[in-house]
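Cysteine dioxygenase family protein: structure tokens wanted.
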Amino acid sequence: MTTALATSPHSIDDLADLVDGVRAAVAVHAGWAETAQLVAEQLRAHLPSPDVLTAEQRLGSPDDYVAHTLHVEPDGSFSIIAVVWRPGQTTRIHDHVTWCAFGVIQGVEHEDLFDAELNPIGHNENHVGDVDGFAPPGDIHRVHNTGETTAISIHVYGTDLTRIGSSARRYYN
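Answer:
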């Protein structure tokens, strides 16, 4: 995965309500699972359009999916990331270092879910407007774009990803 800092002129204005909503959700100081759901509610209410990225950023990369940092809270309590997936691009099976909420803003993302023994336990087809949240444990999954067009999703993680480099805690074979 490639990571880049978003420079869209729309980012600040388009994200202001989302950032404020996530701040309020995080300020509740709930457990991770509840925080993920509170943040998902805010993401659902304030899901930005693909225009939160520049036209060039929305193209993605032929090499791998690309993550664009849209916002990092100054105290490190959360990050907002846009992930751009070209057709066929996929993550490895992984889990996370913290809670996450995500919403699809373009295309369709396929998600495969696994139990702790890596047995498949389900899958989701996430379409534009679909939003969900999750927290460890029980967050083992793989995401991929099985469609024929580029997919884009917004992810909110409960940490400063620019500091730690990745939302993944572990990768599985």
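Residues 2-11 have pLDDT under 50 and may be disordered. The chain has one domain: 2-164.

Cheers.
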